[in-house]
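Here is a complete protein record:
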Amino acid sequence: MVESFARHRLLDRLHVLRRLLALARRGARYPEVFHQLRVAVRRFRVAEAIVASRAPSPPLPRLGKELRRVARRAGRIRDDDVMAMALRDRAKARRTVAPVALALVRRLALRRVRRLARLDRALMDWSPQGHSGRAMAALNQALRRERAMPPMTLRAAEIGPLVAPVARTFLARAGAPLAGPVRLPSLHALRIAGKHLRYALEFLEPGLPPRLLRTARRVLKRLVRLQRALGDIQDRRVRMDWIACRAAKAAGRGALEAIALQRLEEVERRDLRTAIVRCGASWRQNLPVVRRHLAEMRRARIG
């Protein structure tokens, strides 16, 4: 029963992914499209892993590294859009760094054009005639062979093996990331683990029994808050690293803009420290609740 449920949920994820890939292929260039495409790929990959863990027979076609390449290229464009928006806000708030911030926005606009061209080349393979497009059509056909299934509630014992691995990974990474010296790569790894847990719970949400559904929604609510705080840190870290790289290159050439870039880097570094402090407050408020609710789910034999 759980295998059939998982395949139907995977088909839902595939429909969303196909729609967003079609939008991107038709030339949609809005930042939100790239963000939703990257999220759809991540959700689909978590769903694909859950279905694969049930060892379906026969095995379903896998979309593989080509899908990761599209998500990576779309994500880079979206990250540049977020960075450009933040730099415009920075230019409005601080006139002393406005000229260099706006110069960086123009540089990002040029880089966006090049990255869009790379994304378009990757998307060509997802046309109906492309290799990846045919693989996606084969997966869609394989999933549609299952007959329509009425809404169903899974048993706790069936849900446990699907949630337990990602929950354990998240809790292992969530030890005490802000207690000592902050390691930004560790925070990013924790953010990814939190996303996997969140997407797994969302994938199984329609099949959860009522009591477990309430607990899962409480976990999801807290995870979203933690993800927001960690995502703010990651965006600021990427922006600061890029500005630091530009400053180092300018200093190597002896360019006058190096001083302005270093000043902007200091402003970003200070704001990053503030974001880490805010994340610590969110962490102390939300993580104990997540732990408690996951323990409740474990007592209900979900882990």
Q: What stands out?
A: Residues 79 and 205 are 29 Å apart (CA to CA). The longest helix spans residues 210-253. Residues 154-303 form one domain.
